[in-house]
Amino acid sequence: MAQDSGPAKDVDQTVAKPRKPGGEPEEVPIPSKLSKKAQPDIPENVPSFKSDVNLVSLDVAVLDNHGHFIPNIPRGSFRVMEDNVPQQVKSFGKSQAPMTVCLLVEFSAKFQWYGSMTWYQTLTAAYGFVQTLKADDYVAVIAYDMREDILSDFTVDKRQTYEALQRLRIPGFSEANLFDALSDTEDRMSKIEGRKAIILLSSGVDTFSKLTYDKARKAIQDGGVPVYAIGLMQALRIMRPGGDSIGFLQADNQMTTFAKETGGMAFFPRFYGEFPTIFGTISDSLRNQYSIGYEPANKARDGKFRKIKVELVNPATNEPLRVVDEKGKPIKYQIIAKAGYTAPREVE
Asked: What digits encode the pLDDT tens for the residues 264-297?
């Protein structure tokens, strides 16, 4: 049976590559087509981040210590720094939009052999996340071991998504090439306009990638698609001897870095009961964001990486903004935004 043979190995169709002209039309347009005419369901005012134009656009989420979006922060309280130089904000607004996400799932015989605790946790997390999606959210599913297998392209039809997850039965190889899989997915997703993110379900361990960690990190920075990483096997590591080894700690640090530098978040749950809260935080962060646009003061087209830092300040005192709740008590908050972008190069 096809369902029992593990993820299919046909990768002729990429997730974000536009289809060839003259092909059969899709019943439901998917955002992997780059033409705006092929994306009527995506709002025109959804902000996108472009490094090849004068105006830099970025989405910023401000969350309290419970992971809830903090609304009604005025424009003047946002300060954007590029390479430690203050930038003049040209546009500002709050937006809420459907999500376009790729569910990137590690499914390797190294950890996820059939019937194992990690196999069960992987499926629980994957199915649980899909159940939180709304009707107008686009989602694609990619599984990876030695290479990536595109189980389903972007669709709003959740039946197709569940059919893709049903193929996660028996893993094929004992390799887990995280760096290659995440870099390739970033590249595909970078071609999609609008609000987007990669949901990574992974142990964080990389075994045999062609890319080194540094090269993968650079590619992921250049892609600029937020990574929301969920680390698997957290409780299992504690239960088995040597489980919380330096290799797993390094894996967690790698996923934390990938998430932080792309404006995403990293989670390391030990209990199944943590999944609903994690998925709610991801949804809140992606759907409710402040859209900020600025024209970089640095006009050089040198292809260098520009660091971005977003701060909340009191414009009257230039001190960090104090946010309080309904009772006047201060709220601890975190600002979620990507760490930077790569400037374009001059065309010779």
From this structure: 999 999 999 999 999 988 888 888 889 899 999 9
Give the pLDDT score at 240.
Answer: 63
- Enter the tokens of residue 309: 């830092």
**Crossing angle between the packed helical segments 158-165 and 117-131, to the nearest 10 degrees:** 180
3-state secondary structure of 267: strand
**pLDDT for 156-186, tens place per residue?**
999 999 999 999 988 888 889 999 999 999 9
The separation between CA 158 and the C-alpha centre of its own chain, rounded to angstroms, equals: 19
CA nearest to 141, candidates 102, 114, 99? 102
Cβ count near 283 (within 10 Å): 19
Token pair of 132 as six digits: 């939180």
- Comparing C-alpha atoms, which of 140, 204, 151, 217 is closest to residue 176? 204
Residues whose CB is less than 8 angstroms from the CB of residue 198 and which lie 6 or more positions away in sequence, other chains included: 101, 102, 104, 182, 185, 186, 189, 225, 226, 227, 228, 264
Q: Does residue 76 sit in helix, strand or coil?
A: helix
pTM attached to this predicted model = 0.69
Could you tell me the two tokens for 60?
């910023």
Category of 118 on φ-ψ map: left (φ > 0), alpha (ψ -120 to 50) or beta:
alpha
Residue 91 structure tokens: 């546009």
CA distance 223 to 239: 37
CA distances, 106 to each of 23, 43, 112, 160, 244 (Å): 32, 32, 8, 19, 19
Amino acid code (one letter) for 88 = Q
**Radius of gyration of the chain from Cα atoms?**
20
